[in-house]
Amino acid sequence: MKRMRVLTISNPNSVHTKKWIEGLKEKGLDVLLIYVDKWFQVSKRKPGNLGVKTIILKDPTITQIITELPKPHQFSNVIKDLKGATLLHQKLPILGRQVKEISEKNEVDIIHGHGMAAAGLLAWASNFHPYSVSVWGSDLYLAPKKYPYVRSLIQKSFEGADFIQVHSELAAERVRELAQVQPDKLMISTWGVDTEYFTPRKSNPEVFTKFRIPTKRYLLSFRSLEKLYQIDKIIQAFGRIYHDFPDTSLLISNEGKEKPKCIELAKELGIKDRVIFPGFIEYDSDDRPAMIASAYCVVQCPMSDGVSISALESLASGQPIISSDAGENRIIIKDGKNGFLVNPPYEKNLADAIRELLSNPDLRTQMAHAARESAVKYYNQSKFFEEYITRAKMSRN
Asked: Cβ(226)–Cβ(259) under 8 Å?
């Protein structure tokens, strides 16, 4: 019997892509990966071996686009599009045909666009059915505002999809604001975390030694050092309370454009010896679950957010999360139960929440149990992929 075959359009560097492919393969599906070389910033980190057939499409050149246009409109349309930042409209039909040809040649059963800002648009442009799309954070909440010319394309992609996977009712409502979609098109389900790999465990002394943590406990931040995630607010909050907790450090484990500024900020605040920057920890590294489980709690402060993988890993590891009340964080973090949600001014309110948790180990223990319980109950990865495959088979039929 032929195994179901899924063509996934996604960024090969993204952890979401890796986990998506692994989840489908574990359920016995064949997976192909396709992406456009210049659409995804693959040069920053070399894509790892994802263990599937990978096809790279070349971003169409101006010459190709002019050739595709009706002759009376060739030059003027391209110039107009360049000025209006809508060259994307001209590229999609070219790339869409390539995606469809590849899908038919490889006997694909369904196309999945992983994220709306690029992948979902390509799935729609392929004119291949069935296709599904997943939406995340910035592609749903930020891209339509930042790039108005993309909004109409996102609307068409939503309306053309056979089904749309979103993480929460909050995200589903945003989809309904952007497009007219029938309720049965929405698969409201968070694809979760491996709750057997990420589990509560005793603090590991090797973590403290390997990453040169100078204190007996630490706060952990796992988000990218980009403006969107406001790591500077976390550092400033720690600067407000570190004098009162000499046994506590702050571990900021990721990379990003803001890293030099964050290092400099720690120096300016006089806390550089207590703020550690160990870099990005790979998602399949054993250091990752050990680092999360050994922390006292997890702190994050995104401006906008979907359902973060690192947040789900933290909950599964029994870690309370202190977070900005932004995006879909309120879906997974229940204020006062498995963490705290704070509003501006973030420097003060994050500091107050951190202080409360550090001062009350019993409260931290209660929240840790609630965090683990919520992950096991609501964010089981295996169940999610079973649900997705069921929906994909229904769409084929």
From this structure: no
